[in-house]
Design a protein that fits this description.
single chain, alpha+beta, tt1808, chain A, nine-stranded mixed sheet, six-stranded mixed sheet, 40 helices, 35 strands, 14% strand
Length: 1007
């Protein structure tokens, strides 16, 4: 079928090429205009590639994959690309731009390339097209456009005569056809481009640099902030750090907002580029801000007591230079194309720094919490949309605008407002679509019918939706300001000079509403009962929900709360004490800040309200979050649990998405999905929308050990139910009083771990040396490969003077010892970071285990061997045969069970592994029943056989011997698996599920 589409397209384009060639003289003359070549050839070219250019199929203007501009000109520059291509169902993010020119003259000019690349780069599109039909040029948009070097970003050129060549046309077709673009052909193609290095960079051919627009603009904003801060501080030395941060932020917000108004053609007259033309850039800027305040209102241009004071001094030359660099005529940034959510991501990272002042200077540095976290984790837009669609989106589905007007949606740690933007965008799109479906109510509601024949929301309607539905709180004043700014940008996104003017004539109001009652500064977690001292309340930014949102709280709370709350936030001791008291329902041991926000959100949700957040994946399995999981499982109806893996740019911080409804629904099923194995680069390309969900019963999910929120498939979950149907005991109930232990931690391997040759050389005291195993390479299924490795083991009561040779040995390495737990005192030597009682290592029949992300591997030790903390050890009670337990835990069935409980992705923390191990159900057998005793003894005999085979296999040298032994070991291992299946009563279908997982391999060392 794909071949048929290609052949049809090839014939159509070949015909166009013939038509062009037959009248080439006229088409290449100056009389043939761009509008004509688009209609005669370029439109038809893209139609042949499968794009619905004329909207023959896609009639809805809000869901069209091709947006065509017909000569939108502002001054000397065109502000929109001729063609913007999208793919269903995402009509927000452009996949490809194409710019058309008339065939007369040189196509590959710097101006043409700069204009086209600027569209693509600002929208984070990797590739763009520049074409006259006669020529078809592919441009690399990954570099910051620079007028001097943009022509070097031409990737490939085609001439219309090559459209006759099927191979050449295939290159175009399988890259730019509609189906190819939908299948991510452009992204895959861009990945093949080499990064510019070496001589090309040295010659300055790529001055713009390899930088996405967000990173580039963030870098530029950082530079502007630094320059403004120094400028303001030098001329206003009395400013403290907080005030300087505020006035600098407000100045930048105004400049960015002005550029937005210019690029969106809401303000037709350019202003940023003209500051200073009359000799006083700052004065002209301030005067314009005062004038615009009467037009727009809102926090952006609102008069600031310090910034707008007559005595506020500025170096006018420096400020004029800054404005010149930011102006549209000089800047590569075009706010008509930069998605507002990308602006939000820029600001989110920008707000991670503050201005710090001394008596004479100012400098910018990261906030302490940002340094601790290793950076700002801005939530990718596709995740924001997923959460918003599955919370607020599901709540408003099918409802009328009147009903929605009474609903309240919030982000309790909103930052720069990415989730608030997504909520607002969702509501705007829903209302627009609703009125077009119910057109009889559209005009009465205030909608505007445009030339496309569809109803559009008026500015007044968009204001009302914003004020009625969107709420946010953040502890950072600058974040609140930016969140409001972002919402204002969204409000005005589709407005024009005419629509803005018409609104003011009709309503006699400023364009921007005050959001002071919607987006507020405060500490979502700490209220005024924190302290009786006012200075404490100011310091923590105490926030009382019933006072700040009285009507909402009185009505029961918010309809939906979404977001990405702080992870690992810093609290001082009084704050921690307060939070632990307020959230004692979820306290286990250590509590991460995200847990407080989840719990607080649960309190602020109304009954039937929806919750959706992206959280650290440790919520799903960590012991410290166990109480929170149980609370959610008991008090809410879990809707989605998605294991996301790594999603954040530049950092490795695995995440999950949790969505629930605040009510209990009988027989609720949770949709779970595992997305962790997909790379973070691939995740945004529509994969989230096509999750392969499993449906798990919530009541049974909550009965997993520790109330784990598994995202494993339903089949594995059913296995867990199966292995618990027969009488069994947790492994923790079968081990002796010492439980399951981790090994010791030597503080310095070079000093405290050595081979026998070193010990003999130093004449170390033998009574203080122990044979030791240090890792998984030495412990294998049913076998131990013992290295020549010794550990120094001393106790507190040991007299330092009684072990002189060891003392001397350690003294040689004293300067290298950095671990705090290592101490050399007068009469005692601590050689172990994590000391263990000697008795746990010298038990005659203890089991040694390697617990990886995938499986448990157990061997039997009877040589009183010590192990380090990469290994686990335990001994069963006297009445329990350790070989029976080992056979079960080493089986293929328990590989699958362990993966269910420990998350196959490999992120189970070390302290979690023993808890998982301890909860494994070991089938109990009645030795008074001959049949059950026979099964027990049969498994023990098979384990004994493996214990005999594996050392022989490891030591074998001849290929024939190794082959025979390996075959025997594999056969015995299979018998063990079959017997364990029988012990737990697995059906044939369940056995097939287990068999489809990875087979635990017989491992041995080849010396």
């Amino acid at each position: 079928m794909a071949g048929e589409f290609f052949e049809a397209a090839f014939e159509q384009v070949k015909k166009l090429s013939q038509d062009f060639d037959s009248n080439k003289g006229y088409y290449l003359s100056p009389h043939y205009q761009e509008s004509e070549v688009r209609k005669d050839f370029i439109d038809k070219f893209f139609i042949a590639l499968g794009w619905d250019v004329n909207h023959e199929t896609q009639k809805n203007p809000f869901q069209q994959e091709v947006k065509v501009e017909r000569g939108v000109i502002a001054g000397q520059s065109q502000r929109r690309a001729d063609y913007a291509f999208y793919t269903t169902p995402n009509f927000s993010d452009v996949r490809l731009f194409a710019e058309a020119k008339k065939p007369f003259g040189d196509l590959c000019t710097a101006d043409n390339c700069f204009q086209t690349i600027r569209y693509g780069w600002n929208a984070n599109v990797s590739i763009a097209i520049l074409t006259t039909f006669e020529e078809f040029i592919i441009l690399d948009c990954r570099y910051k456009p620079d007028i001097e070097t943009v022509t070097f970003q031409i990737i490939k050129k085609y001439h219309f005569s090559q459209y006759h060549d099927s191979e050449k046309f295939a290159e175009i077709y399988y890259l730019f056809s509609r189906d190819a673009v939908a299948a991510s052909s452009l992204e895959k193609y861009a990945e093949t481009f080499p990064k510019r290095r070496g001589k090309a960079v040295q010659r300055g051919l790529f001055k713009g640099g390899w930088q996405p627009v967000d990173e580039s603009f963030l870098e530029e904003l950082d530079g502007y902030r630094d320059a403004l801060a120094r400028n303001f501080k030098n001329h206003n030395p009395e400013l403290d750090g907080e005030t300087l941060t505020e006035v600098t932020q407000r100045t930048l917000d105004r400049l960015v907002f002005l550029r937005f108004l210019e690029d969106k053609l809401i303000e037709q007259k350019p202003c940023v580029s003209e500051f200073g033309d009359k000799g006083n850039a700052w004065g002209e800027f301030s005067a314009l801000c005062r004038r615009l305040d009467h037009i727009y209102d809102g926090i952006v241009f609102k008069k600031h007591d310090i910034l707008d004071a007559q005595n506020f001094k500025v170096d006018d030359t420096q400020f004029a230079d800054l404005c010149e660099g930011l102006a549209h005529v000089n800047s590569p940034y075009d706010f008509n194309f930069i998605p507002i959510h990308i602006l939000g991501s820029i600001y989110e990272r920008f707000l991670g720094k503050v201005i710090v002042v001394t008596k004479k200077r100012a400098h910018v540095e990261e906030k302490p919490e940002v340094r601790k976290a290793g950076g700002v984790y801005y939530t990718p837009d596709y995740i924001v949309r997923y959460i918003v669609d599955n919370t607020a989106g599901r709540l408003i589905a099918g409802k009328s605008p009147i009903r929605i007007a009474a609903m309240r949606f919030a982000d309790v740690a909103c930052g720069s407002g990415s989730f608030l933007l997504a909520l607002y965008d969702l509501l705007l799109r829903y209302h627009r679509d609703w009125y077009n479906k119910h057109s009889s109510k559209a005009e009465k509601a205030g909608c505007i019918k445009r030339d496309d024949g569809y109803w559009h929301l008026s500015l007044q309607q968009k204001r009302e939706i914003l004020l009625n539905n969107i709420y946010g709180v953040d502890i950072d004043h600058q974040a609140v300001e930016v969140a409001q700014l972002s919402l204002y940008l969204k409000l005005l996104e589709e407005e024009t000079t005419a629509s803005a003017h018409d609104y003011q004539l009709e309503f006699h109001e400023t364009l921007l509403p005050s959001l002071a009652n919607n987006v507020k500064q405060g500490n979502s977690l700490i209220a005024s009962d924190f302290s009786v001292f006012p200075e404490d309340l100011v310091r923590v930014h105490a926030f009382d929900w019933p006072v700040q949102f009285p009507a909402i709280m009185k009505a029961g709370g918010f309809d939906a709360i979404v977001g990405n709350p702080p992870w690992g936030a810093l609290f001082d001791e009084p704050q921690l004490a307060y939070l632990r008291e307020q959230h004692r329902d979820i306290i286990v041991r250590m509590v991460d800040s995200y847990m407080y926000f989840v719990h607080e959100s649960l309190k602020r949700l109304r009954n039937d309200g929806a919750f959706g957040m992206i959280l650290p994946d440790v919520l799903l399995y960590q012991t410290d979050s166990q109480k929170l999981r149980k609370l959610l499982a008991q008090k809410t109806s879990l809707a989605y649990i998605c294991n996301m893996g790594n999603v954040f740019k530049h950092v490795i911080r695995p995440a999950c998405i949790v969505v629930f409804i605040k009510k209990t629904i009988p027989n609720q099923h949770v949709l779970v999905a595992d997305f962790s194995s997909v790379s973070k680069e691939q995740k945004p390309n529509g994969l989230v929308e096509s999750f392969n969900y499993s449906k798990l019963p919530q009541a049974k999910l909550s009965k997993l050990p520790g109330c784990l929120f598994t995202t494993s498939g339903l089949s594995n979950f059913l296995l867990w139910e199966r292995v618990n149907r027969y009488p069994s005991k947790r492994l923790a109930d079968l081990v002796d009083e010492d439980g399951i232990q981790r090994g010791v931690s030597p503080d310095l391997k070079e000093a405290f771990l050595m081979d026998s040759k070193t010990a003999k050389q130093w004449k170390l005291e033998k009574e203080k040396l122990r044979p030791v195993l240090t890792g998984g390479k030495q412990v294998k299924r049913y076998d131990i490969d013992r290295p020549d490795l010794l550990l120094i083991y001393t106790r507190r009561e040991d007299d330092f003077r009684q072990i002189p040779n060891i003392c001397s040995f350690i003294e040689q390495f004293k300067k290298q010892i950095t671990c705090k737990e290592v101490k050399l005192k007068k009469h005692s030597l601590y050689s172990l970071h994590r000391a263990r009682e000697e008795r746990i290592f010298i038990k005659p029949q203890k089991l040694l285990g390697v617990i990886t992300e995938d499986e448990i591997v157990l061997a039997l030790d009877n040589q009183e061997t010590f192990v380090t903390d990469g290994l686990y050890l335990f001994a069963t009670k006297a009445e329990i045969d350790s070989r029976y337990v080992m056979g079960i835990l080493n089986s293929k069935l328990f590989v699958a069970i362990y993966r269910l409980l420990s998350f196959e992705e490999g992120r189970v923390l070390a302290q979690v592994k023993p808890a998982v191990l301890a909860n494994l159900p070991i089938r109990t057998l009645d030795h008074g029943d001959p049949a059950q005793k026979y099964e027990h003894d049969q498994l023990v005999a098979l384990v004994d056989k493996m214990l005999a085979l594996m050392p022989r296999l490891r030591a074998a040298r001849a290929d024939s011997e190794r082959y025979a032994l390996k075959n025997a070991a594999a056969a015995t291992n299979l018998q063990i698996d079959q017997l364990v299946y029988k012990l737990y009563g697995l059906s044939e279908n369940e056995i097939n599920i287990v068999d489809s997982s990875n087979q635990p391999e017989v491992q041995f060392s080849k010396k």
